[in-house]
Amino acid sequence: MTDPLAFQIALSEPYERAVEKVTEALKAEGFGILTQIDVKATLKEKLDEDFRPYTILGACNPPLAHRALENEPLVGLLLPCNVTVEARGEGSLVSIINPEAMLGMEPLAGNAVVCEVAAEARVRLERVAAALGEAVKV
Predict the structure, then answer these.
(1) CA 106, CA 57: separation in Å to the nearest integer?
(2) What is the pLDDT at residue 32?
(3) pLDDT, tens digit, for every residue of 67-95?
(4) Residue 89 and residue 14: Cα distance in Å, rounded?
(5) Cis peptide before 80 (omega within 30 of 0)
(6) How far apart are CA 109 and CA 88, in angstroms?
(7) Domain ranges of the chain
(8) Backbone torsions φ then ψ of 19, nearest 5 degrees
(9) What is the layout of strands, in order, in the sheet containing 135-137?
(10) First vs last Cα of the chain: how many Å apart?
(11) With contact defined as beta carbons under 8 Å apart, do 56 and 84 qualify?
């Protein structure tokens, strides 16, 4: 069975409040936000294209990242863990990357420490999803 790529949660909250709620839920699980990309503003500025409100949050749990990077520097290519929040009608859709799916490729999949870190990160991110609402795995 293949791991789902992401966990998705539909929120009734409007987009701006959803970004705040997601950030708070990530913080409660030890994740800080390293980057915040406003995709709508970027596409408008770079391409003069209109796009729905959409933010990419680069979430990092420093102890987990440190353990993985100390053991396998290639992990850095896949960090931070991305979480997206996008406007959907009156509410929002949150998508949280599944670290086990992200780190499940060679040579990372054969590294026991990286697999342990991915499993711990997954548990934490699943708790984030549960704190937000019912998750759908995609």
Answers:
(1) 26
(2) 96
(3) 999 999 999 999 999 999 999 999 999 99
(4) 9
(5) yes
(6) 35
(7) 6-137
(8) -60, -45
(9) 32-38, 54-60, 81-88, 91-97, 6-11, 135-137
(10) 13
(11) yes
Extract the tokens encoding 76: 């850095």
pTM of the model: 0.90
76-109 burial, b for 16+ CB within 10 Å, e for fewer? eebbbbbbbbbbeeeebbbbbbbbbbbbeeeebe
- Long-range pairs, 127-131, Cβ under 8 A, ≥24: 127/29, 128/22, 128/25, 128/26, 128/28, 128/29, 128/31, 128/96, 129/7, 129/9, 129/94, 129/96, 131/25, 131/28
* Residues 4 and 129: beta-carbon distance below 8 Å: no
Q: How far apart are CA 69 and CA 98, in angstroms?
A: 18
CA 64 and chain centroid, separation = 14
Query: What DSSP assignment string belongs to 65-133?
Result: HHHHHHH-GGGGGG-SEEEEEEEETTEEEEEEE-HHHHT-STTGGG-HHHHHHHHHHHHHHHHHHHHHS
Secondary structure class of 35 (helix, strand, coil) = strand
The CATH code of the domain at 6-137 is 3.30.310.70
Residue identified by tokens 């294209």 is 49
